[in-house]
Structure formats: structure tokens, C-alpha cells
Amino acid sequence: FPAQLMMQLSLLPLLLLQLLLSLACHCASVSNDQVHFNNPHLLSPEEKAAGSAGTPPANGTGAVNRKYFGGVDLNKEAHRLRQQLETTAKDELGIVAMQAIYDKQAYTPFESNGMEDARSLAASLSLRLSPIKGILKQLLRPIVLYYGLHKKQRMSPRLDCCNLANSDLTYVPTYGAAVSRQTSCDLIPPRLGPNVFNPGRKFTKMLDQYMKYWSSIKWQYFISAEGLHTEFPSHNFKRSRIPCSAMHRVRHRDVYVRSVHPRPMHLVLVLDSGQMSARDFRLGLLVARALVDSLSEKDRLALFAAAGTIQYPPAASDETGGPTMFPVTHEAKAGLAHFLDRGVRRQDKDVCNHSKALQEAFNIIQDTFRGSSAEQLRNSSIMIAYISKGTITNLRAMHSILCNVTAWQRSLASAVVINSYQLDGQSQSMFEKTFMSQLAAGGGGSSCESADSTALEVKPGHAVVISSESGPGMDRVSRFYEVFPPVQESEVQFSLPSQDLEGTGLVISASIPVHVKQQDEAVGRTIGVFGFDLHLAAVADVVTYYNRDRSAYAFLVHKDGYTVMHPSLKRPVMNSRRAPVHTDIVHFEKYPNFDRIRRQILSEPEGNDTLLVNFDSEASINPILYRNAYERPQYYKAIYHWKRVEGVPFIVVVKTMHEMHKERQLTDSLVPSVDDLHYNRIDLYAQEEKPCVYLKQLTTFAHSTFFLSARTFKRPFDFLVEAERKMDVRMLIVFLSDATGMLSNSRQIIPEVRQDVAVVNNINKFWTDKHTKSPMRQYIVRRYIATTSGVVRVYPGTLLHSAFDPTTREWYLRAMQYPGRIVVTEPYLDSGGAGYIVTLSYTVLEGNATGHHDPERDRVVAVMGIDLTYTFLYLQLRKLFPLCTEQNMRCFLLEDTGYMVAHPGFVQPHVRGPTEGNHITHREPLVAHDVLRHEHFVKKVLCNSYDDRTIQRVYSLNLSLAAPLSNLERGEHCVRYLISQVPGTNLFLGVVNETETKHCGPKTAFCPCSTVDRQCLNCKRWEVTDCECPCECPLAMGLASGRLRRQQDEENPAVPDGRSAAPACSSCWTPSCPTIRPAPPSPTAAPGGLPSPAPVWSAASGAPGAWAKAPTTSCCRCRTPAATAPASRPALAAWSAPSRPTRRLDWPPPQPPVRPHPLQPQRPPAAWISTAGEDSAANSTPDIAAPAVRAR
User: Is the omega angle on the peptide bond into residue 233 within 30 degrees of 0, that is, cis?
Assistant: First the structure.
């Protein structure tokens, strides 16, 4: 004990010295009047100086010192706000009235059968694609007939696509380009002979007839063996990224090669990157690109550049780390194009080691076919494409290399075809030409054989000299496959989805080779390939809009496992410019043991199997379960039903979730009254409806209107592309109101839709009464309800775009995610012309005669929503909480992913930029720094977006927060805050006290965000406590394995089915427009003189016809925006929560209009201003009066 005491006493001077140094640092920190950037530990001395009495513990649920917030109990204030929101939902939206309507309805049991649904979907898909195969085979005969006539009398009329004038073309939304259906046109290669067969002009009428009857056909083309490319309808490729003069080399090149050589090819591409001129090196890159573009996913490719060292593309190695062959998918082509453009380095100081490069190529082939039989090797199409100048030093070295090639050929027991592409420089020696030609001949041949060696049958390849980019050698590059035996099969080949190089949208190519055999010929020859490009939106529409079983979803896969359509992918639409996604299905069905299910799906023609899935992991991936599951157990059964589509390489899969209760559906006896059946096409009934232009939409205030989205039809694509006529609307109304059930369903409507229309019609009177009596009229833009089947009812009655789908909108998805909660979206720019708005939405549950409901168990049948001017919520905050108006105090509302719903910065005149996309990390960075340290409150989440190949970093806030959240002990106390969850909603109420003291100087800390794009500033660092704006990082895919390159990325969930923004178009006619008079100054305005709320006719949204979404640089919330469908109607859906734009936009958004202060009454559009002033007011209705504005 004395020894220990003496030791402690000896340490006392050191402890005193440490205390003095700490006090000195403390004084220095207090004297320095600034906040240290992004270092909360350096803020603690200021915190102690300012005093931190009453600071809650780290969990944020302890006692809070209310003296900093005027003694306010924030939990009580949050309950008051909840009551205000509930009053709005009940009294203005009518959620109680609508729920009572459903409770009165009669239901019948409904049993779903996933296997029958899979068979039905497969049959529908076969019904779309089988006739396409029949048409292609039928057209072979007239093509052969025209070719026979051409042999007797040369007929080669040509019309160059590149020379077509824009004045001769008309833009058609279905194509996404300007076209002419009067004739076809040709892509003509240079140096093409004058007598090349071309059936184009004689074929035009026949092609036009097929296009009229089959709406799924987009382009029709014939590619001759000489390279002449004829396409119908004609167009001039002005919208393409590739010059028209070079289009013949890439347009349908992989489709042509697939058709004439349907067997898989294995190609090793070797690129010489040694000593050569920049011109020759560029030629070598062009040859490599041409070869890569000619391959498809059925082929396997390995590529490397060789000189002193060997350069491999990134992610081109297998699980063992060695180079290997990989499928040539769109993903692989994009990666190889990047490698060839930016990754390959020309090594000027090194000469290519030909022996080492060729040995590496043979090693890759040997590794690929390891374990294969000699018969399999002989029947395989294996090639080495050697691109080089052929630089060689002497004859001995050349002989040695060629003999090595012969030995490697013999070791494989199969001859490998070698195509040599010699880059023709300014001068070449005889050795170089001889070496490249002998290499293409197969090696050293007999001069290298020893006495005991066996003869090897050598398949000579092409020896091509590349002299220029447009020389004859480049034309032979794309015909590399001719060295293999011809395949005399006339079978239709289907491709994976690809991006249309001229128009918009994704297409699937169906093609067939055309063979001709003359009497004096033993083997027929190929004269060309004929094919169709099909809209993917048309081919996969029955799978995309599958809605038969509400506790299931469907997806479409290729026979090789590639995902064609899945709810987690963007919906394929005709005017999207996104790239295709060739991703394996395992990335979207990320469950243990799914590999077993995958093998069965790809190998068996039909079947089903079951997986036991953890619900929590599934719910984080797919919000469908949130809105469909009756209850949320820890585990549930997921049953996969699959059916292969006959005659095509696609498989339909239906995934059903095992339910504890049987589903019910509304009884068939429900028939809507014809008096309440007001369809949204009020433009067709202008004389009866007397519509007006409300904001930017054709509208009627007499009643609400109903709308049927594409998912309510058995043929969704036909509904999207075919224009509705007045007769079609009449037939629709008659069918829906038919009580006898004897009328035919000519519009092909799903039977359950009639009951949904009948039920939602009952809310019409409630809304029309509220419109004239509501004290909130100046804040309400519109009210609506959307059922899970796709039926929409909206007031005021509005003309909607045919592509509008409520089930993809933010307000719908978030309400489905939180049944029983009032969900409020962040502000977004309304496409209907109301400026910035917020949407309040709520779920309607399946009817129950007792009136008792449990959101955790009852099935959601509809979502109701009401659009409010975005300043409404902030004005309510100021009205309910006078604390928000005090100096140095500010209040805000936050939703559960961290985006601001209401903030004083939204209404301040000096704040510029869009109101949408404001995250807490941007508006309140000091608060965000501290909030991130509350582990129980906020989480940073990673999710994979395969549509744009990004990893998205987003935030998730805990909606179960019980007590107010405040500063941590080491937090920033120059800015004090309180955050409380608003019960029954997805909102958080926050109060910030930013009191200036002598210890608190300029607030310079902020969360780093990119001001250029959405890229995270440091993608290699991932810390939960790092404050950063929501952002995204590249998602690296392995070319060889098809898996993600980083193992930790495999654990991230896939982005759920995304939101979509409706396209914009102007009204077809503009009647005199009555508008709402601006509201008088609010009596509850703040002492600071807060302006009155904006009238609903605010011109903040810009000119009619503008896109609904203002461009921002904010991040999306684990959702990808789906592109829009073509405009087939004269007006637009007015309301949606458009998705945040990504780095690679599907289309260029318009520039945002100059936006004046949003709270001040604005001058209406010029088209609304009457020169008669008083006459306009006198002629308008009493409740919708026109403002008296002097015309300029």
C-alpha cells in the first residue's frame, strides 16, 4: 500500500500540468470566435462555456431543458399539429366518409392461383410474339421472289436516309423521332456496288400494312449481305449520337451476326499497344470496337492489350482472379468501350511480344474449355482476333512464333481460327506482311511438325489490312464470322432489350436470315437478314401491369437468367432514353437459397417452389409487401410460379406471398350509376360539360371525373397508343353501367374495375359540397382517390394523360408504405400550374361491417390525396406555435427520409433556387451534424439502382421516436434544437434556437454536397456519422461473373419500383378562364409582415406545356424515376410527385421559369387577362371570379 501511494503521488505533478494545459486550450478556444469546420469534438469547449445544463442523455429521451425553447412541451405541440392534419384529412379530403362507404359494401371470397396467372401471362406474351414469328417467315417468300427478279433485271433503287430533309418528316411520339411512312430509306456503305439487291421501295406497302395491324412493331428493316441497310419508316437519324454516315456499321450489327450465325462464338481479342503511330493505334481501337459491337449476349469474349505488359479491362477476371471470357451484354459493351477509349495506354517504348500475347490468348481458351470433350471443342466456334502492325525483327523470330502457334493449336486438339488485322502504317517490311498473313493461315504449318506429330486440320482465317477508317478493310471487319461454316437455319432470333439508336424507348429485335439456293449450288447462301424492332413496352405490358393478385407481382427473365422486366426496374415506356439493364435476376430476388429457385426456373418449362423469407429484409426491398400483407410475421412463404413462353427465349415468373387470411373482393352486383359516370375526357364533350382552363388544365367544377389507368385494361399498351374517340367513351360508359352483364367488354377492361368505379363514385357529392363551403379553399388545389386496381377519381374534374398511373406516384407509394398514417410529401412543382405544392395522402382499408380496422392487418384498397399550396403547412406552424415567430427561433417540418416539408427558408424572398429537394443536411447542417450521432433516430442506408448503375446513399428516420430529440453532450450548443415525431404521420416537428452569444461566432460548418452532379464527394468512405447530402456512387459490375465487384455491395437492397413524372402538353383549346381571386391578407400573419398565401393560379410553374419537374441536384430516396409515355391525349395529368432527376437524365429537362416570391399574389398568364376587366368579372361564376388585372 505505501508503494502504491507513493506512485500515485509521483503522478500528481503530471496531472496538474495536464489540467493547466487544458485550461489554456479552453481559453484559447473561447477567444477564437468561430465554429471549427466539421469537427464536433472541437466544439465542446464552446459548449461548456455556453453552459449545457439539462442536456439529455445520448439516447435523446431524457429530460430536456425547456428554458431554451420558451418552456414549450414539443410533444404536446406535435399532438396539436396531428389534430390539425387529421381535421384536414377528415373534413376536407373525406377519409372517414370514404372508409364508411367501403364498410357498407358487400364482399365475396377470392382465391388466387399463382400458377394459373403465370400460364395466363405466358399465353398472352405468346399471343403477341407468335404472330411476329409467323409474319417474318411469311415475308421470306416475297423477298426471295424479288431477289429472283433482281437476278434477271437489276433493280436497285436507293434513297439515302442521311439526305432526307426534315420538312419531309413528321415527329411521331410512338417512334420518338421524325419519320415518314410513305417510303423506306437506306443506309448506304461507301464503295457499295451499283447492283446490290435492295427490295426497299417495292416492299413499302406491305410493310405499312403490317405496321397498321400490329402496334408493337416499331422499325422494319432488311440488311443485305453486302451491308446495305433498308429501314421503314424512313428517318434521317438526326437525333442519334452517332453520325448518319457511320450508322451502317452499328445499326443492328449484332442482330445481323446473331441471325446468320446463331451458334455461340468464343472470341479472344488481342490489341497491340506497342510502338506505332497515333494514327495506327486509333485504327486498332476502331477495329476492336467494331468487333465488340458485332457480338451479343450469346457470345463469349476476352480482350486485352499487349506490348511490354498486358492490360486487362477492369472487372474482366473470374473468381480466381485470372482473365476469362464473359457474355457480351450491354453492360460488357459499355465497360469495354470505356476501356478502349480511356483505359488502353499506348506503350511507345515497348515492342509487342507476339509470342507472349498469343500464348495468353490460347491460355484463356484452354481455361474456358477445361473439362470439355474433344467433340465439344470441334463443334465450337473459337477465334482469336489479332490486331497489330505485325512488327517483327527477323525471319528466325517469325518462324519461332508461328511454330509456337501450331504447337498451341495441337495442344487444344482443335484448330482455333485466327483473324489477323494488320494496321497499315506509312512503311512496312516484308516480314510484317508475311507474319500477319501466315498467322491468319494457322501458324507455321508443316514446317513446324516433328516426325511423331499428327496432322492438324487448320481453318484459315481472314488476313485483313486496315489502311484507313473508311477503307475496304473496315468493311471486312464486321464479317469476321464468315470463316465459320454457314448455318442454313431460318429460325427467328429474339434479342435482349436494347436502346434505340434513333428514337426513344427500349426495343427487342426479332430477325430471320434470308437464304437462297440456286439449282447449280450445293449449299445455299445468305442474301440478308429481315427483322422487326418491337416496343418492349408492348411486349412486356401484361407483366408490367400485372395486378390480378394484390399480394403478388410478376417479372420476366431471359432463358439465360437476365432480367427483362421486374418491379424494381423502371417501367419500359416509349419515350425513355435510358440504357437497357442486362442484370441477373439474383440481384433483385436477394434471398437465401434463391439460386436453387433460379436453376429450376431456367431449366424446367414450368413449375413452382417455395422459399421461407424474413419479412423485415423483404419489406426493405419491395414496398409491395407493405401494401399487400395482411399481417407482418417474422417469416412468410414466398412461392415462385414460372412458365416458359412457347417459341421465345423468355420466362414469366409470378411470386406470391402466402397469406394468413383469404382475400376478398367486392361483389359483382355493384354497378355504378350512369348519372355519376363522368369520364375524364371532358374535351370530347365540351358542349355538354362546359369546361374551363383551371391553372393549366381543362377542368370542370360541376362534378368530379373518373379515369382508368393502363393497368385497368387487359391490353395496356394498346390503350396507351390508341387515341380514344367519343364512341369509345360512350361504349365504356355503357359497359360500366350495364346491370344485366350481357354487353360485350369491347374495351377489354379487367372485370374488377367496374366495382371500384361504383364505390369511388360515392365520394363525388362530398367533394362538390366542400368546394363551395370549405374555409380552406384558397389553399386546396385538388382532391383525388386512387384504387389499387388503377381507378382514379379527381375533383375538380380534370383531363388526365393516358400514361398517368397513380400507383407509381410518391404520394401513393408512401401512403402504402405507412397504412394508417397521414403521409405528407415534400414540396414539388405541380404540373397542373399551381406552383409548388405538398400532397397529404391517407390509405383506405378493406371494408368491415363492424367499422373496426387495424392498419397492420387489413388490406389497403385505395389511397386518398389532397394537394395543398406548399406554404399552408408553414402558416399552420406559425398559427399553432407563436414560438416560431420569435427572433432567433425557427420551426420546420421534416419527413421520414430527411427532406424538409416546411421551413422558413421556403418563404423568405432572398432565398433562391427550387423549393423541392431541400434536405436537412442542406437547410440545417449544424442540426444534421448532431442528429447523426443519435444512432436510435437516424440511419444512413445504401441501396443499389441497377437502372443507372449507382449506389444511392439515403437517410431513414425513426418514426417510433417517443421523446423529443435534443443536442448530445458533445453536440453543437450554439444552435440548440428539439425534434419530436408528429404521431400518426410521417413528419417530425423541429424547433431551432440560434441565439447569438459571445461564444458563438459565424456558423461555417456544413455537410459536403456536390454542386455539379449527384456524385458523392468520397465514394471510398462510408461512415454513418459523416454528414453528407443524399448522393450516389458508381455501382461496379463484374464483366465475367455478372456479379457486383465489391462483395459488400451485394448486401444492399435493390431500389424499389420507382416514381414517374407525367409528361406535359398544352390544352387543345383555350376557353375564357375564370380564376380564383387572391385571398386577402391573413389575420394571423406574423408581426414581421408575412405575406398572404399564394393563390392557386400562381404562375410559378411556368408556361403551359412545360415539364412538371424543375431540375434540381438533389437525390432521390432509393427510388428511380420512370420515364414517361408518349403524349396521345391533348392534356396532362396535373398532379404527381415527380422523381428527383438522376445524373443521366432520360430526357433534357426544361430550364426552370423565373419564379417570383411564392407567397405574393402573382399576375395570371396573359391568356387569362381580359381587356374588358369588369365584363370578365361579371361573366364569371360567383365563387370563381376573375382578378381585375390591366392588360399590357
Answer: yes
Model confidence pLDDT, tens digit, residues 254-272: 999 999 999 999 999 999 9
pLDDT in tens, 925-939: 888 888 888 888 888
Handedness of CA 913, 915, 921, 927 (dihedral sign): positive
- Domain span at residue 185? 139-252+489-536
> Quick one: 320 and 231 in the same domain?
no
Least confident stretch, 191-195, 889-893, 1181-1185: 1181-1185
Pick left, alpha or beta for residue 638 (phi over 0 → left; psi -120 to 50 → alpha; otherwise beta).
beta
**Which residue, 77, 59, 49, is CA-closest to 967?**
59
CB atoms within 10 A of CB 18: 10
CA 490 to CA 909: how far, in whole Å? 69
Q: Are 1059 and 1119 in contact (CB under 8 A)?
A: yes
Among residues 441, 470, 499, the one where a domain terminates is 470
C-alpha–C-alpha distance, residues 1034 and 1039, integer Å: 15
Please tell me the distance from the alpha carbon of residue 1117 to that of residue 1055, in angstroms, as a whole number. 9
Q: What is the CATH number of the domain that holds 392?
A: 3.40.50.410
The cell for 740 is 344485366
Model pLDDT, residue 657: 79
pTM summary value: 0.78
| Co-location of 388 and 239 in the same domain | no
Q: What is the pLDDT of residues 702-759, one digit of tens each?
A: 999 999 999 999 899 988 888 888 899 999 998 898 888 778 787 788 888 999 999 9
Question: Is there a single domain that holds both residue 889 and residue 981?
Answer: yes
Q: Specify whether the CB–CB gap between 681 and 724 falls below 8 A.
A: yes
**CATH number of the domain residue 556 falls in:** 3.30.450
Length of the chain: 1192
Q: Are residues 716 and 591 in the same domain?
A: no
CA dist 1002 and 997 (Å) reads 11
In a domain, 20, yes or no: no
Neighbours of 916 (CB within 10 A): 23
Does residue 75 fall inside a structural domain? Answer: no
Q: Is the pLDDT of residue 588 over 50?
A: yes
- Work out the mean pLDDT of the chain and round it to a whole number: 76
Evaluate if residue 449 carries a pLDDT over 50.
yes
705 DSSP β-pair partners: 794
Does 199 lie in the same domain as 325?
no
The domain tally of the chain equals: 4
Cis peptide before 796 (omega within 30 of 0): yes
The answer on 454 and 432 residing in a single domain is: yes
Q: Evaluate whether residue 962 is within a structural domain.
A: yes
The answer to whether 231 and 466 have CB atoms below 8 angstroms apart is no
Quick one: 532 and 568 in the same domain?
Answer: no
The DSSP bridge pattern shows strands 300-306 and 265-272 to be: parallel
Looking at the structure, do residues 573 and 609 belong to the same domain, yes or no? yes
- The C-alpha R_g of the chain, in whole angstroms, comes to 34
Question: Cell digits for 1089?
Answer: 409582415
Q: Identify the weakest region by mean pLDDT among 22-31, 287-296, 1025-1034.
A: 22-31
Kindly state whether residue 812 falls inside one of the protein's structural domains: yes
